[in-house]
């Protein structure tokens, strides 16, 4: 990438020196100005993103009081603990199932909104995006109250159908379900908006051609809509996978990891150990386990985005 | 002969049209049915916040229908809006968000301009790097950042932990990469002829940016501003880690740490606080929905 940016400049610069010195100066000044304009960005990212990321690696090799280098001791300790494997399992269940449901619901709802006459779409889109707009910490409080053990409004409603009372946050499996439900509620509108934008960019002629060829609605989705939306589905899903995997607010407020660590995911467990338990190195080690999956997702996103750039 | 074919063609055509429009009508009805279901799912928590916020604590603990307010009262709102502590949280949040939006714009707009237009050594790599930074979540960095600021306090004597302004250093790491990224997209879509004309007319780079790029890319700028504001208003993890004293807290953390006292949940006030905390983003969204959505979709479609 750097080479591509480098060569035109160098070619232009040599041409410029041959022709006129003034232009050469201007070009040199241009790159200096450009560098100065990006300098605050570079400094910010270097100081508060890249440095802490590497510092985290260093921290993970220290003992609890941060006085001694213990190599991979923290990781060895984690591998021996059952809670760690529980957290790994739960993080994967949480992220994968939440992303699948968000993507499915987003896809379905986007189709319904797309079906509605154009002048009414705005209103529906406006209502359905509300969960994404409310700060998750605030909306999770509302869910916590809806799930309240003694005053749950859901249990009140379900009691008329003879169901319940359901221990929404009290039982391990129900708590996992609740956490995923809230995450799906919060994240599905994002998918809906992205898919709706993608749906609108599919040319109408393709559907007409498919209809003339006798395609039913399922074939229209499978052979026209999905291939046309492939890229946006991939990017949105990978992006959501990163955000969901690194989620903190919802689990922290809804269950705080309980009951008995059965809803902890990497971020909340790292917080519990690193900040509340003051074992900073161990907490840093826990959060580092998010890196591999984030890196894989990031590589795929970059690939898809550069592919998009080449197509355009 | 010809009359028969016309007779045959006529009705069959009509039937076909009729069935298509009937299919459409049914599809539309089903769409509305499911949209109503999804809208109920989406709006239940915010509506329940509103319902609960209008109840007195006596009514909340009574075994009445939780979905209905029998004796609406504004006592929760009056209680919170006259409490110095809550107003303090609100102002802390407001100041943090305003400063962060300003800092973000001051950093990301010039950077995006330079990366979109003034190709220099490594600019393409840097643009990719900016996008990668955006993918690094807050939950990966909070522990090393916390330790870093503790150490800075130890070495220089400048106490930054437990001060609301420490958030001004940290929030931009969440907002700047995305804002730069979408601004690069918007700036790159401006025709090259426009700034070439300005340069030929003797405009400096700074003038090109302020007189041409910013006005032309104003929708993008508004979208980026809204994004930066929403992110800094909603951020929960960093203030939870970095601030603890009640006079330094921002709204989300303040509501959760002070209104929940031990096992006693004052749900009327918590829901009122949550609703008031959700209000600024909701109001911005209600008035600037198109910009909000543009910012949301631009992140993945531009560039």
What does this structure look like?
The complex is a heterodimer of chains A (312) and B (303). Chain A is mostly helical. Chain A is built from 15 helices and no strands. Chain A has helices spanning 2-19, 21-59, 73-80, 82-115, 118-128, 130-133, 136-146, 153-159, 172-200, 204-212, 217-245, 249-254, 266-276, 280-288, 291-311. Chain A is globular. A two-stranded antiparallel sheet of chain B has the order 1-2. In chain B, strand 1 (260-261) and strand 2 (264-265) form a beta hairpin. The radius of gyration of chain B is 27 Å and the shape is flat. Chain B starts with a helix and ends with a helix. Chains A and B meet through helix 1, helix 2, helix 4, helix 5 and helix 6 of A and helix 1, helix 4, helix 5, helix 6 and helix 8 of B.
Brief overview:
With 312 residues, chain A is an all-alpha fold.
Highlighted features:
heterodimer; A: 312 residues; mainly alpha; globular; B: 303 residues; two-stranded antiparallel sheet; 1% strand; disordered N terminus
The best one-word shape of chain A is globular
Helix content of chain A: over 70%
Alpha-beta content class of chain B: mainly alpha
Q: Count of helical segments of chain A? A: 15
Mean pLDDT, all residues of chain A: 81
Oligomer: heterodimer
Q: What is the H-and-E element order of chain A? A: HHHHHHHHHHHHHHH
Helix share, percent of chain B: over 70%
SSE order of chain B, one letter for each helix or strand: HHHHHHHHHHHHHEEHH
* Overall 3D shape of chain B: flat
Radius of gyration of chain A: 26 Å
């Amino acid at each position: 990438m750097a080479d591509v940016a480098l060569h035109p400049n160098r070619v232009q610069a040599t041409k410029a020196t041959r022709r006129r010195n003034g232009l050469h100066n201007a070009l040199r000044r241009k790159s200096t100005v450009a560098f100065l304009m990006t300098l605050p960005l570079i400094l910010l990212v270097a100081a508060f993103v890249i440095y802490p990321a590497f510092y985290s690696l260093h921290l993970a090799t220290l003992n609890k009081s941060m006085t001694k280098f213990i190599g991979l001791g923290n990781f060895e300790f984690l591998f021996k603990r059952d809670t760690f494997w529980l957290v790994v399992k739960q993080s994967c269940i949480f992220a994968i199932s939440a992303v699948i449901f968000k993507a499915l619901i987003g896809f379905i709802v986007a189709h319904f909104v797309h079906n509605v006459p154009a002048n009414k779409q705005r209103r529906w889109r406006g209502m359905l995006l509300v969960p994404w707009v409310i700060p998750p910490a605030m909306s999770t409080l509302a869910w916590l109250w809806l799930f309240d053990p003694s005053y749950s409004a859901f249990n009140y409603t379900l009691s008329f159908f003879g169901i319940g009372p359901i221990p929404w946050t009290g039982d391990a499996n129900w708590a996992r379900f609740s956490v995923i439900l809230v995450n799906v509620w919060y994240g599905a509108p994002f998918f809906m908006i992205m898919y709706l934008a993608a749906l609108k960019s599919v040319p109408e002629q393709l559907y007409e051609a498919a209809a003339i060829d006798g395609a039913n609605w399922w074939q229209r989705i499978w052979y026209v809509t999905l291939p046309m939306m492939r890229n946006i589905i991939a990017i949105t899903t990978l992006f959501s996978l990163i955000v969901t995997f690194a989620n903190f607010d919802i689990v922290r407020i809804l269950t705080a990891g309980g009951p008995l660590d059965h809803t902890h995911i990497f971020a909340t467990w790292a917080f519990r150990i690193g900040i509340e338990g003051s074992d900073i190195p161990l907490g840093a080690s826990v959060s580092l386990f998010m890196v591999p999956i984030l890196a894989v997702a990031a590589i795929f996103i970059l690939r898809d985005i550069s592919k998009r750039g080449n197509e355009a | 002969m010809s009359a028969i074919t016309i007779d045959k063609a006529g009705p069959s055509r009509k039937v076909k049209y009729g069935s298509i429009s009937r299919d459409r009508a049914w599809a539309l009805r089903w769409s509305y049915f499911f949209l109503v279901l999804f809208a109920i799912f989406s709006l239940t928590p915010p509506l329940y916040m509103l319902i609960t916020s209008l109840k007195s604590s006596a009514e909340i603990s009574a075994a009445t229908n939780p979905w209905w307010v029998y004796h609406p009262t504004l006592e929760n709102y009056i209680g919170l809006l006259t409490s110095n502590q809550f107003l303090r949280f609100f102002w802390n949040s407001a100041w943090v968000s305003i400063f962060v939006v300003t800092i973000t714009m001051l950093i990301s707009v010039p950077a995006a301009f330079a990366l979109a237009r003034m190709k220099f050594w490594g600019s393409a790599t840097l643009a990719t790097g900016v996008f990668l930074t955006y993918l690094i979540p807050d939950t990966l960095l909070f522990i090393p950042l916390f330790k870093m600021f503790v150490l800075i306090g130890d070495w220089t004597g400048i106490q930054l932990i437990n001060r609301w302004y420490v958030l001004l250093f940290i929030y931009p790491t969440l907002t700047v990469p995305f804002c730069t990224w979408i601004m690069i997209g918007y700036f790159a879509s401006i025709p090259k002829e426009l700034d070439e004309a300005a340069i030929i007319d003797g405009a400096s780079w700074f003038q090109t940016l302020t007189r041409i790029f910013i006005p032309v890319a104003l929708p993008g700028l508004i979208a980026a501003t809204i994004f930066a504001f929403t992110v800094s208003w909603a951020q929960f993890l960093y203030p939870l880690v970095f601030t603890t004293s009640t006079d330094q807290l921002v709204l989300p953390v303040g509501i959760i740490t002070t209104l929940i006292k031990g096992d006693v949940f004052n749900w009327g006030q918590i829901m009122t606080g949550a609703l008031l905390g959700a209000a600024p983003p909701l109001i911005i969204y209600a008035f600037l929905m198109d910009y909000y959505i543009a910012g949301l979709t631009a992140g993945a479609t531009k560039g």
